[in-house]
Design brief:
The chain is of the alpha+beta class. Strand 1 and strand 2 form a beta hairpin. It is built from one helix and four strands; from the N terminus they run E-E-E-E-H.
Length: 88
């Protein structure tokens, strides 16, 4: 799943990937989750301002649903734009 958003003069691309990582535990259960891949572009430019970033849920865990990963990635990208590129 991929989405493109416009925010404060920037283009934000958010992709969702399956995360099949697992940790050693006594229980053999293996859970699939999702991670968000985020790219931030200055509007009208073909080159991203920095390399793609991957985001998971709190504590380094993957998101439980694709929708959570999509919104989590979008929220993180907006915070990046606000914190790094916004001028008072």
């Amino acid at each position: 799943m991929n989405r493109t958003y416009e925010y404060e003069g920037f283009t934000i691309q958010v992709g969702v990937e399956s995360d099949f990582s697992w940790q050693q535990s006594p229980a053999p259960a293996r859970r699939t989750g999702f991670v968000a891949t985020v790219r931030v572009f200055q509007a009208g430019h073909a080159v991203a301002l920095f390399s793609p970033l991957r985001f998971g849920d709190t504590g380094g865990r993957p998101f439980t649903t694709e929708a959570d990963a999509l919104m989590g990635g979008y929220s993180a990208a907006r915070k990046i734009v606000d914190d790094i590129f916004s001028r008072p």
